[in-house]
Every structure is written in C-alpha cells, then in structure tokens.
Specification:
Distance between the termini: 35 Å
Protein name: Nucleoside-triphosphatase
Organism: Methanoculleus receptaculi
Number of helices: 7
Structural class: alpha/beta
CATH architecture of one domain: 3-Layer(aba) Sandwich
CATH class of one domain: Alpha Beta
Keywords: ATP-binding, Hydrolase, Nucleotide-binding
Largest sheet: 10 strands, mixed
Order of helices and strands: EHEEEEEEHEHHEHEHH
Radius of gyration: 18 Å
GO molecular function: ATP binding; ribonucleoside triphosphate phosphatase activity
CATH topology of one domain: Rossmann fold
InterPro entries: Nuc-triphosphatase_THEP1 (IPR004948), P-loop_NTPase (IPR027417)
Helix content: 25-40%
C-alpha cells in the first residue's frame, strides 16, 4: 500500500499524502519542522498547522498551534482543567484555538497553495473530534500534496478512515530529513506544473534560481546535516 519516502506517484490523479510516523515521543513534529525548514527557502506556499508540544514534570502537558500560512499561534490544549474547554482524553481544548485551527485547515485554493500540513492526526480525529471534519473536507476536495503526522500504531487506521490511496509513509526511525524534503519538493513541483498547465491563460515562465543559501545551510545543520551536505535547490515559484 505504501511507497518509500523517495518514491511517489499521482494515483487516480491525486497528489501524494506524506505521512510522517513514529512512536509517541519520537519527535515526529521535530522531523516535520526540519523538513519544512529545508523547503521554505524555495518559495513553497505552505498552509496548515503544526502543533509543538510542551512537557511538565516529564509528561506531555499541552500543545501550541501554529498557523503555517500566517505564523500566528494559539494555545491549543492543556492538562489544566478549564470549564470552557472541550475535553478529549486528559486534555482541555480551548474553543478559540479549535476555531483557529479549523480556519487554517479550510480547503485551500489550489492555485495559491503548494503544500498542506496537518500535525497531527490521531485518536481524537478517529473519534470524530478536533480536526476530523476538517480532514473530511480536505480529502473531499482537490488538494495539493499534503504532509500529515500520525502515530505508528494508528497509521493503518488513519489511512483506511480517510481512504488515502496515495500515501508515502516516512518513518522517523529510519528516514532521512534531506531525502524526505527532496521527495516533498518533487511532489510540489509536479503539482505546480499541473496547476500552470491547467490554466486557460499561459503561466509566466518560471526561472531557475537559488534560494537563500545561508538559510538553507542553517536549516540543514539544524536537521543534523553537515555543512558539506548537498543543499536541496528547486525552481522558485511565482506567487
């Protein structure tokens, strides 16, 4: 059912859904952040959410939600009781943060979005809560390549629940950040070419260019790559 991180195909005309997976606490969000750090310098138009977690006394205590399109953030949930909040598991989800996240996950305009990120899809979504309705809408519409993070033990259930036929599974225990970023960039480039080709008016020529090398080198170093590692360079995309 699944392809490796360096292989993907548009099955049934659909862009791939990259699924970053691993055990609980295996730094799926960190891996995702490093992948995004390697591609944002190539002018990729990213939408969606990333949810870094917080730890208190050695246990997960909550999450912050970041809108990747705007950089704005909200406290998503906490283990601290709050009567205003939705309770899922041991977490109290702030209603304003849930509304914030659902806006960020609204079906995108395919002409102005290259990549959609959902961090993370888990047991609450499988129970029909949190981002479940947003995911239903996303997979029901034409969408660009996507990246989801999913806990390993829930992987097959998530794929079946949302009927993902074109999953590219990236296991953080074995995958390379650089190779994953390269595969995502290939998918983005094919998506942009398809969108340009489908327009009635010819798309403006897109020249090759080199993104900010200092930023990419810094991001590669943060991802554990040496300064001599190859930098992923792709064409700059027109707004």
């Amino acid at each position: 059912m699944y392809s490796g991180a360096n292989v993907y195909s548009y099955m049934n005309g659909r862009p791939p859904v990259f699924i970053i997976t691993g055990e609980q606490g295996q730094c799926k969000t960190t891996f995702l952040h490093q992948v995004l750090g390697l591609i944002v310098g190539a002018n990729v138009r990213v939408r969606g959410i990333i949810a870094p977690g917080h730890v208190r006394d050695g246990r997960r205590s909550g999450f912050t939600l970041v809108d990747l399109a705007t950089g704005e953030h909200e406290e998503l949930c906490s283990i601290d009781p709050d009567p205003r909040c939705e309770v899922h598991g041991r977490f109290y989800f702030r209603p304003e943060a849930l509304a914030f996240g659902r806006r960020a996950l609204a079906p995108p305009d395919p002409r102005s979005t290259d990549l959609l990120v959902v961090d993370e899809v888990g047991r609450f979504e499988l129970q029909g809560a949190v981002w479940a309705d947003s995911l239903d809408r996303l997979v029901g519409h034409p969408h660009p390549p996507m990246i989801w993070t999913v806990r390993r033990r829930l992987l097959h259930t998530v794929v079946e629940r949302w009927n993902i036929k074109n999953a590219v599974v990236v296991d953080v225990g074995a995958a390379s950040v650089m190779a994953t970023a390269d595969a995502v960039m290939d998918a983005v480039w094919e998506w942009r070419e398809a969108q340009a080709f489908s327009r009635v008016t010819p798309a403006a020529p897109q020249a090759d260019c080199i993104p900010c090398l200092s930023l990419l080198v810094a991001d590669a170093a943060a991802a554990g790559a040496s300064q001599n590692s190859p930098i992923i360079l792709r064409r700059c995309y027109s707004p």
